[in-house]
Write a structure and sequence with these properties.
Elements (H helix, E strand, L loop, with lengths): L1 H4 L4 H20 L2 H18 L8 H8 L3 H18 L1
Amino acid sequence: MASAMTWKVRWMSWLAVIMLIIGTVVLYVVPLRYVLLIWGLVKFTAKLRCPDADHHIGLLEFLARVPSNRQLVRLRQHARRLCLRLT
């Protein structure tokens, strides 16, 4: 999560900012009560609509895809070694 909030993975940070802006606009236009009603209906009827589907939590999957600081260091070292081999 620290990598997403410190802009180390820029495209994920921009995606989070865009989603926050869209969420703000939706909450400004549509009352919160209706948003929660629709979210609840979708959440509780998901098993009825698609019983065999794999249901996941979007926010947790987003945070799981953000690389940790240790992974970023390894990727940078690997990229440097690859660049040295190519030259």
